[in-house]
Amino acid sequence: MQKPDPITDLPQYTIGQLAQAAGVGVETIRYYQKRELLPLPAAGAGFRKYSATLADRIRFIKRAQELGFSLDEIAHLLQLEDRNDRDSIREIASERLAQVRAKLQDLQRMETTLAQLINECSACTTEMQCPIIHALNVPVMTT
Q1: Helices (H), the chain
Q2: Residue-wise burial string across 115-140, b where 16 or more C-beta atoms lie within 10 A, e elsewhere
Q3: What is the pTM of this model?
Q4: pLDDT score, position 8
């Protein structure tokens, strides 16, 4: 009795079926292939068949994009995963986390400034220039 092969016994999809399984459009799959994020399978019987495991890879790509990774960074992460280089993957994710935290700090400063300007605007008289407009007209000092 022959032992099942976990690779060749997986379901095979057409590009449309793969797109549907991964929740993306066919053009997204083609674009990822062009960017070498997905393999281009050989055509058999007139059309290409895709492994069902590619749906997981596509979902990974989409989720990584949602977290702010560029497609180049995602390609690098996939290469590191293929080599099982978790230290490098962790380092890249840590760098992304630091960038996200810096953006959050910037957004919090913006929120504080805008809230303050709105409060000033609501308290000022109509004879005065609007504090929001005035603040946005002041040249920004760069260091």
Answers
A1: 15-22, 26-34, 53-66, 71-82, 86-123, 131-137
A2: eebeeeeeeeeeeeeebeeeeeeeee
A3: 0.71
A4: 52
